[in-house]
Structure formats: C-alpha cells, structure tokens
User: Fold these one by one.
Assistant:
Number 1:
Amino acid sequence: MKMFSSSYRQGFSFSIVHIVNLGVKPFWIEVSYFMILSLLGFLALTISKPRTLPSFRPQNLDVFFTSVSAATVSSMSTVEMEVFSNAQLVFLTILIFLGGEVVTSFLRLQLMKSKISMEKTVLQNKIESSNSIISIDSHDSSNSTRNSIHHLELGHEKEDNNFEHAITNSMEDSETINVKLKSLRFLSYVVFGYTLGVVILGSSLVSIYISFIPSAKQVLKEKELNLHTFSLFTTVSTFANCGFVPTNENMMVFKKNSSLLLILIPQVLFGNTLYAPCLL
C-alpha cells in the first residue's frame, strides 16, 4: 500500500510539473479542471439510474446542467433533488467537494509547489555547472607555468570572484526556495486537515442529531433518504457554500429542527467567511 501511495504521489507530481513546464496559464488549468469535472460528473449521473424510473427520467441537458452547477457550487438545478438515487447523490457530493473553494485552493497550492520545485531544480543545475567550471579552471591553473599565472593572475582572480559571487547568489536563492517549499507543504497539510476535520465532524454531528431526534429522522424516512448519505451530502454542500440539499424543499422541511440549523451555520462560515482567518 505504501509503495502504491508513493508511486501515485510521484505520478501526480510528475503530471503537475509536466503541465507547468508547458507554460499553461492558471486560468486555462482551472477552466480545464472544471470542464473535465463537469463531464465526468455528467457521465456518472447518466450511467447511474434515478430512483423515479421508469415513470420519469431527467433529460441529458438537465443532468449536465446539474453536474456543472454542482462542480461550480452554484446550486442551480432544473431537476428536483429527490429524483436522484443514493448513488447519484454520492456522485453529486464528490462534485461539490472537488469544486469547493477549499479544495480548489488546495490544488492551487500543489501547482505552486510544483512550480517552485521546478525552479529549485534549475538552480541546483546552475550551481553544479558553476562548481564544475571552477574545478576545471582550478585544474588548468595548477598545470600552467608560473609566468602564465603571474600574467593572468588578476584575470583569474576576477573570474573566480564572479563565479563565487554567482554561486553565493544561487545558494541564497536555493535557501529561499527551500523555505517557500516547506511553507507550501505545511500549508497544504493544514488545509487538508482543516477540510477533513470539518467534513468528518460536521457529518458526524448531523448523523447523531438525526438519529436521536424523531422528527428529523421521520423526514428522511418519508423521503427514503439514506442517513449517512444525507449527512455527508448536506455537510459537504454547506461547507462548500453550494446550497444543495437532497430534499425538494431544501432546509425548509427541517424548520422545526433549530438545533440542526445551528450545527450547519458554523460549517457555512468555516467554508467561506472564516476559511482564511482559521488558517492563521
């Protein structure tokens, strides 16, 4: 498992570096990301069957619109949410999660880290080439005659000083890049842990609340919604500020469950307004 995880990370890093090497602008990277995500979501939603079959099946355009809306967390749909089956709700949850601001910011950090890693490699090659040039010059100088050294002494000193100055600057730049890489790596871990913590804690609280409150539990029973799917979907949608809920009435059906609303309010803040301050 460790070997697979390591090879996967290396392959993912290589692909990102390859994209950065092509000089693709971040705008086009993000556009391509959301287009691919929306198309994959559309295929997943199309392959999986809605629970209203055979009486009703959404049109392909409606499904594609819902996929794009979920991937861009715009919360617009031309299909009632209760039409989607449990599997389709899971796919929508993944789309919302991957399209949320927190996850996309994490991906931006990976792109920045790959770009800086590439700069580090270029600097290391520059330092190595400078060291090799100095070693060659030193070897040639040691084999020359005293008279040649006497006549070219000042020239050699200037060249050596230039090389040493270049190497010193390159090493300082390399140290700065190392600090940036460590900072980005640490920030990536913080964002990953932050996201995982909010989603796990939030969905757990929603599940526990619905399990112990009969009125909320009855709503899911009447609408034939899976408890864990509903909890995860609602938490991810709230955290990503999407607004989708697996019920046709959105959260209006839970207007008597004020505690559930209080559980969701912090998730809205943590995924949007308080996202940046929480990382400080």
Number 2:
Amino acid sequence: MNKLLWISAALLVFSAVASCVSEYKGSSAVRLSSATAERNKSANETLLKAFQTGDVSALDGIIAPDFVNHAGERVGVDSLKVGIVRFHARFKPDRMEIKRQLMDGEYFSDWIRYVGSDSSMVIEGIEMTRYTNGKAMEHWFFPGGTPRRR
C-alpha cells in the first residue's frame, strides 16, 4: 500500500513539474521534432547506462555545460560524474531495473530499482531529467524511502 501511494505521489510530482514548465513556455513541449525527440531519448539511454554501470566516460557528449543536478544542487558534468562514481563506490549496484519510463516533451521520468551486490539491498526511486536538443539540462532523483533489505 505504501509503495502504491509513493508511486502515485511521484507520478503526480512529475505531472505537476511538466505542466508548470509547459505553462511557462506557453504550450506543451510535445511539439518536439521527431529528430529532437530521438536525440533526447538516446541521451536518456546514455545517462541511464552511466547510472547502471558507473562508467561516466560518455557523459560529456550528453550533458549541457550549465547542467543542474537538483539531487544535491550541483552544476556541471563533473559534479554528476563524481556523484555517480561515489554512488557505485558506496552502494555497489549489481543491477538496475527500469520498472517504468515516461516521456513528456523534454522530460523523461524513469522509475528505477537498483539492487546491490548484496542482493538484499535495494534502492528504488524516480530519476527525472529534462533534455534540450539531446543534452541533459536538469536532473532530479525522488527516492522511494531509505535503502532497504529485501
């Protein structure tokens, strides 16, 4: 029951952020060209691969210079790289499961489940990223509570 409430709340937050941005720009960002949408999708896949593997070598090509990571209020690609490397050093995720993905214009929302090398350790949450022309501009992480043992 708590999990269902959390998921509903996270999706509500995603919808609220997306609608606020749409209102700010005067219309929904759904009008992206198919080429731009594909660049954004490819960039999102690259970012998720970095989260999954800890390999940050491809991030320079998909992160905007003024990128903001709201999960820590850090700016720039180097701060994101450090965050990913530290996450892998501390948690040592064995695998990452994508439970659900949503895309609304510039925004990608990925419901992620990280399972640690000790398979009883699990971190679950929503990774939300805003892209412009294939470059990540902003990122948020909404954790689903504290890391837990299965």
Number 3:
Amino acid sequence: MGTGLGDYVVVSIILTYVTSFVLKAVIRLITDMPEQKIDLIRDGGIPSSHTTLVTALTTSLYIKNGWSDVVLVSLIFSIVVIWDAMHVRLEVETISRFLNRRFREHFQENVGHTPFEVLAGLALGISMPVLLFYFAYR
C-alpha cells in the first residue's frame, strides 16, 4: 500500500480532528444553554476529540503501513490518552465539583468524558480514516 499514500496519514488525522470539532459544535448548538453555544474549546462533550485524534492516528498508520512497531507505539499512546480522557479527567471533574460546592470556587467541572463520549470518538476515529482511504486513496 505504499504508493499514493504519502499524505494520507496527515490528511486523515486533520480531516477527522476537524470533523470531531464540527460535530461537537453542532451537538452543543442543539443541546446546550445559549451562553455556551459558541464555546468550541470547552473540555468534555461528544465526541471526545482526544480519543478521535489518537484513534485516527493509529487507524491511519495501520492502513498505510500494516502492523508495525510504529502502529504498536501509536496504539499504546492511544490507550494512555483514552484512559486519561475517561478516568484521570473524570477524577479532576469530581474534585472540581467538591471544591466548587465546599469553597464556592469556580473551577471548570466538565473536563472528563463519559464512556459514551469516548466510544463516539473511537467510532469517528476509526470510520473517518477508513472511509477516506476507501473513497480517496484506494
């Protein structure tokens, strides 16, 4: 699969990442309160952009190179980032809620991702590179 795939990984990652932000913005426009509608850089939400990015990277590398050391490193990196998005950041969210209620602080509370948000990011991060390869690079 070496020929014609020189820019595939970069294009795939950028296109998938931008798509995740557009989807997140559309979902926020539909579901959030008016004052939060344009806040595209706010943490949390569906799909998880972190998960989308690292999954698109791993999927694109796999499609371009097959199974390799680079894909393995990318997979391990993806697992760490996804774990952080779900577990570590949700703990920060819990601590922020406690501090906000206890001391009347204003820490951002929605910084982590639910399993569903991560799953949506995972689905987008796999499907976009596959579709891009199938329709544009095959």
Number 4:
Amino acid sequence: MGWLKKPLVLTVIIAIVVVAGGNWYIKQMTQEETVPIEEVKMRLESMYQGSVEQLTDADVEYQAEILRNGALYSATVDRKTGKVKTLELLKKAEPTVVVKSEPEKPIEKPANEPVEEPVTPNEKLPVIEKPASQPVSEKPIEKPRPQPVPAPIEKPKPQPQEKKQSVVLTEQQAIAIALGRLHAKVPVEVDDVDFVPTQQGGYYLVELDLDTDAELDEVVYQIHAISGKIMSESWDD
C-alpha cells in the first residue's frame, strides 16, 4: 500500500471523487427543478380544453399530442418552467353530417261508406209510375252561326330575375364564431378584427388574446365572411 503515499496518485483520486460528486449534485438539482409530467398534463387539458392523448419525456422538454374539438395538435413543453414552446395542428376536425329523419306519414282512414238498411219482407217498396209518353214534335234544325274569332292573347314578357345579393357577416357575428370555436375558460380579449375583400366574398381575421401564463396566448381565426366557415387557426405568443 506504499503507492498510495505518492502525491500524484492522491491528487488523481481526489479529482475523481470531486467530479463524481459534482455530477451527482447537478443531476439532483436538475431533477428537483423539473415540472412533473402529471402536472404538465393537467395544465394542457385545462388551458386548451381538450384531452392529452400522448405525453412523452425528452431530454429537456415534453412532447404532447392534444385532441380538441376533433382536431389533433402537437405541443412542445419546457420541462423546467412547464410553459408551451410550440403548438402545431396535425389533423383538422372532420365536418359532422346531420341526417334528418323523415316524418312519419299519417295513416289514411277509409271514408265512411253509407250503410244500407235491410228491407223487411213485410214492408212494401213504393211503386214509381212512369209518365205517359208524349208524341215528339219535329223541330227545324238550325244551322250553327259562325263564332267570332277571339283576339290573340299577349303573353306577359318574363321579367329578368334580380341577382341574389350575398349576405356578408358582421364583425360581431365573426367574433361570436371565433369565441365559440375557442371555448376557453380563461378571460379572452378581442384584440383586432379586420375584413379582407376577395372575389369569393371576403373573410375576417379575428385576433383574440388569452389571459394565461402560457407562451402561446394569442390566436388568430380566418373566417369566411359569407358561410361563416373557419378557414384557418394560428397560435402565437
């Protein structure tokens, strides 16, 4: 054991112990500062009003897939702060088809038929006497008189049909559609509403701000000005 007394060997051993202890300490501090994965799941479901379908733990961030109103989103969450770094739309919601049921037709009842009363053998039927035939006197046959030709009837000319004017939504209706799509439980402020005219009727750009601690707290909806259909949805910080 005499080799342990050499200064160079002792210095190497001490350096190894210090490095190993430092790595262990840094690892413990990193684990304490990380937001638990269950808390991240609860935050995402509460913030976006959807269900977290998949949540994986990466090196410095969480990867999540969120299902909201039939649409699938991909989110990246910081492990230390728990804030959303990116949010992308993976799959749009499929439109629902409503099938109207045909009303039942009422059952037609047969009309009331007259009921014939039976005739008893004791009752005598009345006898109807025919009038005596009288001689028919011959009358001269009159020739038909010529009928006047009716004047031609003028048909009314068809009036040109007026073109139907397309009805454009108001700004308030566009804002109501955007708020209905967002369906957030946090306070929401309408930041800006712009109308962009196009040959297809134009569209509205409705910008909403969410009162939340998340980085992505601003959403812009592109709404068709005639049909009210949401054409696009984009999030920003």
